[in-house]
Amino acid sequence: WEYRRYLFRSIELEAGSHKFEAAFVNDSGEETDLYVDKVIVRKMGEMPQVPVRMRVEAEDMERTEGAWHDEETGTIWIWSAGAVFKDITFSQSGVYEIEVVAMGVEDGRQPLMQVKVNNRQAGNPVSVRRSDGAYTSYIFSGIEIEAGTHNLAAALVDALGQEALSIDKFIIRKRMDLP
Fold it and tell me: Residue 72: left (phi > 0), alpha (psi -120 to 50), or beta?
């Protein structure tokens, strides 16, 4: 027997650690062996930038006074001047959209939710509809963010009565490079 060379091309990988495996996919149970002498990994030309997409569960975020974690549902409730926040590392500069999956509880008016990046308002506050237990996506778009670590927050705005928000998660997507 002799070693042969097998080449696998166009495998896209992100930076970081990866596990490579070589195995039979058609082992018939007969005595067959696979011997691997070496594996060589090479970057071949420039690959397009991988789009940035991050998901942050609200229960993994820090909370201010006025925010409560409902452990049964795994969601966060915000009332009064409450907020959730977390430092997020963005690997690429760009124009992002932040989707917040939330549900409102009304007390005469719909609660207003705002998103902030580094304590600056990102987009206009939105009215969060009461959805009888079903969460709805609210998208804040056109947010310019430089690569690096930034503080992401969501808060209730101008709460007058018993209105509240339940936040489930944030989905962050890069939409384009900065001009």
Answer: alpha
- For 108, the token pair is 């005469």
Q: What is the pLDDT of residues 62-117, one digit of tens each?
A: 999 889 888 887 778 988 788 999 999 998 899 999 999 998 887 667 888 999 99
117-123 contacts, C-beta under 8 A, 24 or more apart: 117/143, 117/145, 117/150, 117/151, 117/152, 117/153, 118/150, 118/151, 119/151, 119/153, 122/98, 123/98
pLDDT at 133: 72
Closest CA to 115 of 125, 127, 103, 129: 125
Nearest 5°: the CA angle 20, 23, 26 is: 145
Q: Which residues pair with 68 in a beta bridge?
A: 77
Name the phi and psi angles at 59, rounded to 5: -70, -15
Q: Is the pTM of this model over 0.70?
A: no
In the block, residue with structure tokens 């609660």: 111
Q: In degrees rounded to 5, what are phi and psi of residue 11?
A: -100, 115
